[in-house]
Amino acid sequence: MKGVQRAPQQSVKEENDMTHPLLSQEHIDTYQRDGVVLIKGLFSDHIAAIRDGIDRNMAIPGPYAAENLKAGEGGRFFDDYCNWTRIPEFEQVIRTSPASEVAADLMQSRRVQLFHDHVLVKEPGTSKPTPWHQDGPYYFVQGAQNVSFWSPMDKVTQASLRCVAGSHLWQKPVVPTRWMSQTNFFPEDDAYMPVPDPDAEGMDIREWDMEPGDAVAFSFGILHGARGNQTTRRRRAFSLRLVGDDARYVTRPGPTSPPFPGHGMQAGDRLRDDWFPFVFER
Ligand SMILES: O=C(O)CCC(=O)C(=O)O
């Protein structure tokens, strides 16, 4: 675990100076206000390792791996998650890249815990968009201090992540759905709002052309999706999910995604740190 010692009577300015060099105060303010911000070059020094990890992951998919296209749909849309314990490249990136320290700054959290890793690959000629969704309602974790870093391992101009600014502050969560069937993930429940159409409703959608290793930092509450990849380039993306000091286990109206069977946690517990290790502490 990385850690920085600081003297007891440091001024606010000195504390602010500990912000990671990849970040400005504007990044932090934007993340706190809008729930989404672009971090240039977050994984720039780790591109080869992440690409190797994605190759290994696709060659030996885990139990949650999914192919997200119906018969006759062109291309390939593969995803898999929770593989860092068996894909050494992912563990190395999680433990040595600046992501965990940058997460602490964005979330304004003293400690950072790993939730999970996620790989999403859209091969050339994949027209299927990633459906609009918020990640939080699928997860068994609640709290305001959380962040996902979505990072392409190929230049992206078309199938970039699209995020609705401010949606992490909406009153009701958006109903989680299954990507293939578009059926609701949990039984109908007043607690959720229907999936909106951000394009039709003129919402404030943030998206960027991105270089390999750039990352979109977005809150678990942010409504997001992606266009299909009808270019001739692959679109390999690595998403890293991290949580902060206020993260607590919460029950949902059904099995969550990821499920982590046998976790044994009770509502209100901190995430068990033998399964969800601390990766940064100030
Ligand atoms: O890569 C995509 O198409 C979607 C990514 C996503 O939903 C995520 O990282 O949470």
From TrEMBL:
<dbReference type="Pfam" id="PF05721">
    <property type="entry name" value="PhyH"/>
</dbReference>
<protein>
    <recommendedName>
        <fullName>Phytanoyl-CoA dioxygenase</fullName>
    </recommendedName>
</protein>
<dbReference type="InterPro" id="IPR008775">
    <property type="entry name" value="Phytyl_CoA_dOase-like"/>
</dbReference>
